[in-house]
């Protein structure tokens, strides 16, 4: 899952991003509305965690523009204003969910995960393919009853491949889905993670390389 955190309180933004990354999400951070707008224009995000009172470009404007563009990105709006009228106003401009500050971090993660599922093709929380069982709630993977110890990046790549349901996934799509904006598209990081996954998944081999196209499960 790819997430953009748009929050001008830098410590809070970095803390939220760090926590989401611990749940196998690829997270970019913008500290003002203009930077958030630039990232939304060039990246395809599943969820936008949006502080309503952003400098540079107000969160309301960002939310309205995103909705008008027809993007699949879901919006979780954050604000210090917790009154019912404020929440109604935030939802009325197109936000999918609303969370007042201060918030419980576990609730924030759960809401981001729920919105991320809504931004994709609906699938059950537990995915099963070729004896592989991937639990998106617990971030756990097993194959033929054998628990697999995957890194967060390995887990994220495997989830993308399983969600594709047998379709080819390009290396570019894997980079876009499982890495943040700091990933170098000219490195071999995708091939390295695929190689590690193959080793951990064991026999029979289940990840196939399609020359010139990508990978499929």
Automatic annotation (TrEMBL):
Protein keywords: DNA-binding, Phosphoprotein
Residues where 4-aspartylphosphate is found: 51
Domain OmpR/PhoB-type: 124-217
Protein name: DNA-binding response OmpR family regulator
Any Pfam family matching the protein: Trans_reg_C
InterPro entries hit by this protein: CheY-like_superfamily, OmpR/PhoB-type_DNA-bd, Sig_transdc_resp-reg_receiver, WalR-like, WH-like_DNA-bd_sf
PROSITE patterns: OMPR_PHOB, RESPONSE_REGULATORY
Gene3D superfamilies: 3.40.50.2300, 6.10.250.690, Winged helix-like DNA-binding domain superfamily/Winged helix DNA-binding domain (1.10.10.10)
Positions of the Response regulatory domain: 2-116
CDD domains referenced in this protein's UniProt entry, alphabetically: trans_reg_C
């Amino acid at each position: 899952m790819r997430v953009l955190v748009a929050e001008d309180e830098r410590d809070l933004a970095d803390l939220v991003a760090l926590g989401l990354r611990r749940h196998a999400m690829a997270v970019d951070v913008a500290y003002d509305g203009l930077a958030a707008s630039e990232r939304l224009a060039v990246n395809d995000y599943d969820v936008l965690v949006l502080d309503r009172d952003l400098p540079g470009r107000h969160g309301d404007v960002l939310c309205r523009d995103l909705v008008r563009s027809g993007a699949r990105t879901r919006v979780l709006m954050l604000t210090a204003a917790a009154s019912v009228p404020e929440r109604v106003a935030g939802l009325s401009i197109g936000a999918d969910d609303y969370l007042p500050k201060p918030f419980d971090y576990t609730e924030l993660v759960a809401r981001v995960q729920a919105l991320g599922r809504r931004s994709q093709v609906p699938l059950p929380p537990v995915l099963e393919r070729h004896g592989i069982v991937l639990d998106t709630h617990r971030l756990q993977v097993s194959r033929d009853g054998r628990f697999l110890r995957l890194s967060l990046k390995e887990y994220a790549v495997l989830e993308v491949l399983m969600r594709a349901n047998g379709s080819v996934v390009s290396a570019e799509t894997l980079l876009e889905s499982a890495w943040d904006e700091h990933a170098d598209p000219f490195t071999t990081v995708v091939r390295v993670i695929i190689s590690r996954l193959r080793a951990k998944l064991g026999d029979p081999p289940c990840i196939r390389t399609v020359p010139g196209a990508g990978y499929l499960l």
